[in-house]
Design a protein that fits this description.
268 residues
Amino acid sequence: MGIPSEMEPTSKNSKPIADPPESAMSRGPWSPALEILREWDPKWAETCVRMTTNPWNSGVLPRKLVELIGVALNAACTNLNPEGTRRHIRAALEAGASRDELLMVLKMSSLLSIHSCSLGAPLLLEAAKAAGVEPAPRAAKAVTPACDKMREIGQWNVAWDPFYELDPAWTDEFFATGIGIYASGVMSPKEIELLAIAFDASYTHMYPPGTRRHILAALKVGATMEEIMEVLKLCVVQGAQACNLGLPILAEEMERLDSRKNADCGGD
């Protein structure tokens, strides 16, 4: 696609940029493209680095959880950032995360897509009512053991009622998939809720109902306000991805322009 890989961003002299002296774990959300920023605007770079790496250095959350949240924010179906996902998977493994923990984060990243139904199903019911349209009759009542189980354990969310009403069989298939993740015991309830806050509060998603619900749930299972704020900070510092993406491209295009100008001058 003409974009340098994360590990090989180019500067204006086309030399590959080596990793900065910091370890992958201390660079926070930054790729090696940070070195371009340090070359072009060192004062702003260091100010920005202090702010963006704060969640890695504050000690409020364990480093492993910080990196797992980094994986979540980059791998989420609302983001799908391959370079950031790789970078934070590598750092999470270095911090002691297991394959099963990372696999769980990726599964959660996939199921975030349910919010298409959370958004669309109520609108469909509203529009159908206004248009006087009724759903086709069903041959038989759907059996929904997964949904029944969610209600039984007090985990059912009324926001799911609209798509359950529209397609109870598929809704049950979805929640059977979800129960298998959340009941696995791979992560604690608090860790799950903190990850869920990150997914919903992320600037690529910004889903208020889920953010509110998971903040309340996190507090109920023992998360502190400081820990939840740390998750929100991790969502904010994810903005560094704009520089991780754009700086190597800018350097490459400047070099391309310089080469063209030099070629034009050489032809005179």
